[in-house]
Amino acid sequence: MNPVLVDVWRGEWVESQHRGSLAVVDADGALVLALGDIERPVYPRSAVKALQALPLVASGAAARFGLSDAELAQACASHSGEPAHVATSAGLLAKLGLDADALECGAHWPRAETQIAAMGARGETPTALHNNCSGKHAGFVCLGCVLAGEQDRRAFLRGYVEPEHPVMREVTAALAAATATDLSRAPVGTDGCSIPTYGIPLRQLALGFARFGTGQGLSADHADAARRLRQAVAAEPFHVAGTNRLDTVLMQQLGERLFCKVGAEGVYCAALPERGWGLAIKMDDGNTARAVEVVLAACVQALLRLSETEHALLQRHSELAQRNWNGRLVGRLAATPALRGALGSLA
User: Fold this and answer.
1) Of 1, 53, 193, 262, which residue is most buried, by most CB within 10 angstroms?
2) H or E, element range at 10
3) What residues have CB less than 8 Å from 216, skipping those under 6 apart?
4) Residue 289 scores a pLDDT above 90
5) CB neighbours (10 Å) of residue 325?
């Protein structure tokens, strides 16, 4: 059974607990820390978007079409569908001579209720540009425009989300190489945005992010692509998530010292370039909204050398206050002493 990583306190009583597993690995594949079962394959979902974006840069597509830092950051994103996110995805597609009809991610409403209400008041409905994966898919489309060569772009791009399409083959190959995983033997499902998602052990996911953060173990073109993507995200962290989102908040504060990306169902992956380590987390109960963010914050707090301001920020997120609808403090989510103890040995 995996260990308890997060306690949910109400008053002075532990009301609930969240179990999970995590792995910290260096770029040579050496295991730095393991808690729980790190060999069982998990679907990383959106946590691996940066690895899936490597071919966008390595192919020369990003340079050919002049993608900005914001557009590259959004290719790695699960954004909130805020107006700037929508405009960025639309702008990338415009550079390709395409529009939202080229995207095969589907449409959903933005994250913020205020924005949903404003759109409703204007009689607007969401498009694929509002989808949290629109930047990633715009990046796939950009890659496809290079792979298409002299072929008709729209015709070539049709069905790019399918596993055997040339675009998805490039994306899958990059993910397999970074994580040193034979994905032809891995469990496979369909992600929320319609692309394949593969079951990969936490140990291999952590390896992929150690490589992403250092370039070590990647091909030369993928190492260059990883560096370019990290630079873009550090320059434009808002485009990886959005207002008050943890990925954005932490990378705004820490810059290129941290790359972190949440995925659905309680998955989080991160690169810590200055330590040469990658990190992968999975909560057993799939708790993405609260518990996995507490674990990620506790890990970053313990594993990076921080200023007082940075430490205070991480402390607020690893000991997360809980308030009721009346604004009263009723409890907290907290990294367990066992988790902090294990991380403390690596500080």
Assistant:
1) 53
2) strand 4-10
3) 27, 28, 210, 223, 276
4) no
5) 5
CATH of 4-344, one of 3.40.710, 1.10.3470, 2.60.40, 3.20.20: 3.40.710
H-helix or E-strand spanning residue 248: helix 246-254
> How far is the C-alpha of 108 from the C-alpha of 110, rounded, in Å?
7
pLDDT in tens, 88-128: 999 999 999 999 999 999 999 999 888 999 999 999 999 99
User: What are φ and ψ of residue 197, in 5° steps?
Assistant: -125, 135
pTM for the model stands at 0.96
Structure tokens at 275: 């330590």
* 28's tokens: 């040579």
**What is the chain's length?**
347
pLDDT in tens, 193-232: 999 999 999 999 999 999 999 999 999 999 999 999 999 9
The pair of three-digit structure tokens given for residue 133, joined into one six-digit string: 């994966």
**Per DSSP, what are the bridge partners of residue 322?**
331
DSSP secondary-structure letter at 108?
-
